[in-house]
Amino acid sequence: MEMNYTLFPLCEYAVTVRFADYIDETVNDIVHETAVRLKRKRKEGVNEIVPAFSSLTVYYDPLAIGYADVCRWLREKVESSGQTDRPLARTVVIPVCYGGEFGPDLPEVARFHGITEDEVVTLHSAGRYRVYMIGFSPGFAYLGGLSPRLSTPRRAVPRTKVPAGSVGIAGGQTGVYPL
To answer: For residues 93 and 72, what is the distance between their CA atoms, to the nearest angstrom?
Structure first.
């Protein structure tokens, strides 16, 4: 699939390749396939390649390679065709305790949607989620695939402390706090 993209400097040592401005599985596939292709053909001076929802960022050493050279390399690799052997997806089952001390927001989520707590649990636990990207804190996976019936706005006042292993919902996504 041909995909339009835009290159722009993120800072003096990073370039972002934006494929879209929305979250979509097909776009995310292109992001990850491109990241694999870039990592396999890494250019001298490139330090890190970080995929996100619909973009990826390339961090480089500006003393070893210039912005124009990084952009030229990116255009060449992004536009190159060919099959990319992405690592096979794997399924991870995460046991979740809902409610009580383990889920203080469950009643609020149920009330917000006008459904029972059991319905929230059934909808949330029935999902097959996709890791779109890792970010926010080390190991935090942004998971797509949440039932639209559970899309819940972020809290007006975020918690300052969330226990490791907690499962959260923010908008149309869910995630597991690793720390």
So the answer is: 41
Asked whether the beta carbons of 161 and 79 are under 8 A apart, the reply is: no
pLDDT at 69: 96
Query: How much is the pTM?
Result: 0.82
The yes-or-no verdict on residue 1 having pLDDT over 60 is no
Could you give the CA distance from residue 143 to residue 58 in angstroms, rounded to a whole number? 23
List the domain boundaries for the chain.
6-79, 100-176
Rounded to whole angstroms, how far apart are CA atoms 22 and 53?
A: 8
DSSP-derived 3-state class of residue 175: strand
Read off the pLDDT of residues 119-145 as tens digits, 9 standing for 90 and up: 999 999 999 999 999 887 888 989 999
The one-character DSSP state at 102 is: G
Distance CA 131, CA 65 (A): 32
CA distance 102 to 87: 34
Q: What is the CATH number of domain 100-176?
A: 2.40.100.10
Structure tokens at 48: 């890190």
